[in-house]
Amino acid sequence: MAAKMSLRFPPVTAPADSPIRVALVEDQRRTREGLQALIEGSQGFVCVAAWRSIEEAMAADGDTPPHVLLLDLGLPGMSGIDGIVPIRERYPETAIVILTVYEDNDRVFQALCAGANGYLLKNTPPVKLLDSLRDARKGGSPMSPEIARRVIELFRKFRPPEKAHYSLTPHELRLLKFLVEGHSYKTAAVELGVSINTIAFHVQNIYGKLQVHSKSEAVARALRENLLD
């Protein structure tokens, strides 16, 4: 098999029966060529592109996007995690599946938050890898067993606390609502009939209870956790 392949996606002639179009972003030549060989040699798949970096992928002709993109994280130039957003913007319908050696919580969390559809380790057996590509094509979120366990741990760790745990008073909730609505300390003070210093005092109490350090963080938490419902 030739070491290089065209970066131009092939035209789609029969969408209903066409093979799953897979693209790769992998800087290690041996790994990249091994994945190409696996995909090209498997029925129902075609490897439409194999790039060495995010920059190379973004420079390619993208008229016909891949169904699934296998993305390494440790890349030269832009990292795989940083590349998820621009790739997602260019190919919104493409399922992005991480394929990496990294399994630490930080990278898993960042990749999934950035928009990755799945997260596989490079020790994934070939048959399982192909099954994962099929799953991703159907809208699934394939994950290696080790990663799935970490995601469960992360979910438990980062699960938002119950509203009652913040112990916000009715007055503090009312003030928080004013902040969400865009009020300044001055306008909130006028609405509540108190001094600006009083508003500042209560806002600091709200920050402490919500474990935030700014108005924007407080507003974001209030909206994200529906504190004002």
The N- to C-terminal Cα distance equals: 60 Å
Q: Biggest β-sheet, characterized?
A: 5 strands, parallel
Q: What overall geometry do the principal axes of the alpha carbons give?
A: elongated
* Fraction of helical residues: 40-55%
Give the radius of gyration. Answer: 24 Å
Total tally of structural domains: 2
Number of helices: 11
Strand residue content: 5-15%
Low-confidence stretches: 1-16
Reading off the top of the CATH hierarchy, the class of the largest domain is best stated as Alpha Beta
Give the spatial strand order of the biggest sheet: 2-1-3-4-5
According to CATH, what is the topology of the largest domain? Rossmann fold
Tell me the name of the CATH homologous superfamily of the largest domain: Response regulator
SSE order? EHEHEHEHEHHHHHHH
Q: Architecture of the largest domain, according to CATH? A: 3-Layer(aba) Sandwich
Query: What structural class do you assign from the helix and strand content?
Result: alpha/beta
The total strand number stands at 5
If you average the pLDDT, what whole number results? 85
Description:
- The protein is α/β, with parallel strands linked by helices.
- The protein has two domains: 20-158, Rossmann fold (3-Layer(aba) Sandwich); 163-224, Orthogonal Bundle (Arc Repressor Mutant, subunit A), CATH 1.10.10.
- 49% of the residues lie in helices and 12% in strands.
- It starts with 19 loop residues before the first strand and ends in a 5-residue tail after the last helix.
